[in-house]
UniProtKB/TrEMBL annotation:
The entry's keywords: DNA-binding, Metal-binding, Nucleus, Repeat, Transcription, Transcription regulation, Zinc, Zinc-finger
PANTHER family recorded: TRANSCRIPTIONAL REPRESSOR PROTEIN YY, ZINC FINGER PROTEIN 143
One family name in Pfam for this protein: zf-C2H2_6
Family: Belongs to the krueppel C2H2-type zinc-finger protein family.
Top-level taxonomy: Eukaryota, Metazoa, Ecdysozoa, Arthropoda, Chelicerata
Name of the featured protein: Zinc finger protein 658
Subcellular location: Nucleus
PROSITE patterns: ZINC_FINGER_C2H2_1, ZINC_FINGER_C2H2_2
Primary location group: nucleus
Source organism of this protein record: Stegodyphus mimosarum (African social velvet spider)
Taxonomy, superkingdom: Eukaryota
GO CC, one annotated term: transcription regulator complex
Length: 218
């Protein structure tokens, strides 16, 4: 009857929070004791709540019960689906206060802020070169190992960096996404477009140290 009357007679002796029945109080007490009685039989990870254990077990079963109604992509967690839905809404509510660039997720904004910082916390243990992001460090380390894990599915050519593989794919597709605003000529790589733009500006950045003659390209 407590459910209907709203009466909560079971009170936590630690924080004085009250509950309508004893089982709710018992579960609540785990937040104070740190007890996690619900254990995963596969990885031994423990949880205070049975519902949390059920959600966790979807990782092992491969179950993804939460499906996006727009694109039909499925997720193991409701929170992941909620985060995904922002893409369809199109609202980028997290804005950088330095350059005003906006992002769908707060985590993406936090990652972006590294661009404005001079901090380079990720250090190569071989040459001590430091990087702003862990991904940049991992990409750099392939220089030391010689590993080329990124393989073209068309011609099987391999690359150290994923970005180089993506550029390489354009040689197969013929895609040239970088267009000169002056003459409308297009290029597959941004760096090539930047070099091309020098012809329009007249800037010759590369000078001979013997005769001082200048050139567009090195």
């Amino acid at each position: 009857m407590h459910v209907h009357t709203g009466h909560k007679s079971h009170v936590c002796e630690v924080c004085n929070k009250s509950f309508s029945n004893k089982p709710y109080l018992q579960v609540h007490m785990y937040t104070h004791t740190g007890e996690k009685p619900y254990k995963c039989s596969m990885c031994k990870k423990s949880y205070a709540y049975k519902s949390c254990l059920r959600i966790h077990q979807q990782i092992h079963s491969g179950g993804k019960p939460h499906t996006c109604r727009v694109c039909k992509k499925s997720f193991a967690y409701g929170s992941a689906l909620k985060s995904h839905m922002i893409i369809h809404i199109g609202k980028k509510s997290h804005t950088c206060n330095l350059c005003r660039k906006s992002f769908f997720k707060k985590s993406a904004l936090q990652s972006h802020m590294i661009v404005h910082s001079n901090e380079k916390l990720h250090v190569c243990n071989i040459c001590d070169k430091s990087f702003k992001t862990k991904a940049s460090l991992q990409s750099h380390q392939s220089v030391h190992t010689g590993e080329k894990p990124h393989v073209c599915t068309i011609c099987k050519k391999s690359f150290m960096q994923k970005a180089r593989l993506q550029l390489h794919y354009m040689s197969h597709t013929g895609e040239k996404p970088y267009t000169c605003v002056t003459c409308k000529k297009s290029f597959a790589e941004k760096s090539v477009l930047q070099s091309h733009m020098l012809y329009h500006t007249g800037v010759k950045r590369h000078s001979c140290d013997k005769c001082s003659k200048s050139f567009f390209r090195k």
